[in-house]
Amino acid sequence: MKTYKEEITIGQLGVNFLLDGDDTNNQMVVFECVFPPGAKVPVPHYHVGVDEMVYGLEGTGSSYVDGKKIDISPGDHCFIPRGVVHHHDNHTGETVKMLCVLTPASIGPAYFREMSELLKGGGPPDRVKAAEIMARHGLIAAV
Questions:
Q1: For site-directed labelling of 62, which of 21, 71, 88, 90 has its Cα 20 to 30 A away?
Q2: Nearest to 100 by CA among 13, 12, 18
Q3: Is 25 a domain residue?
Q4: Which long-range contacts (CB under 8 A, 24 or more apart) does 15-24 make?
Q5: Residue 108 sits in a domain of what CATH number?
């Protein structure tokens, strides 16, 4: 059985942390994302000062990087440089799991906890509050 440092649920998305900034001298965050069938993850956005790598663990998800769709199956990966607009989706009927590595560790559990709280009320999130949370953690919505 896997043991995670912290598990956070944001709407349909599961985020299971393996390492955060406390473990890596703020150099890296590593987490597993679990996307149920049909899940759409954050609006297209970019990171001001964080690079991201996505690695497929289970199922086939889609990453959209700078307008290009990249299907990610187990063993596939993509690199998303800071400043490049991206988002992830699961258009399949199966659960998708991806390993995400972000460097440095400025987008960590605190960001995901805040977004989780915002989405607990159900229904569409308050876009202004979501944008404020994102900006505080170095993410900028591109829509």
A1: 21
A2: 18
A3: yes
A4: 15/112, 17/108, 17/109, 20/105, 20/108, 20/109, 21/104, 21/105, 21/106, 21/108, 24/105
A5: 2.60.120.10
Kindly state the percentage of the chain with pLDDT values over 70.
Answer: 99
Cα 80 to the center of its chain, rounded Å: 12
Residue 1 lies in a domain: no
Contact (Cβ atoms closer than 8 angstroms) between residue 12 and residue 75: no
| Res. 1: pLDDT tops 70 | no
Looking up tokens 């996307």 gives 35
DSSP output for 34-78? EE-TT-B-S-SEEESS-EEEEEEEES-EEEEETTEEEEE-TT-EE
Question: What does the block give as tokens for 39?
Answer: 């899940």
Mutual angle of helices 109-119 and 127-136, in 10-degree steps: 170
| Confidence (pLDDT) at 120 | 87
Count of domains forming the chain: 1
Q: Which two tokens stand for residue 135?
A: 């900006």
Are 90 and 72 in contact by the 8 Å Cβ rule? The answer is no
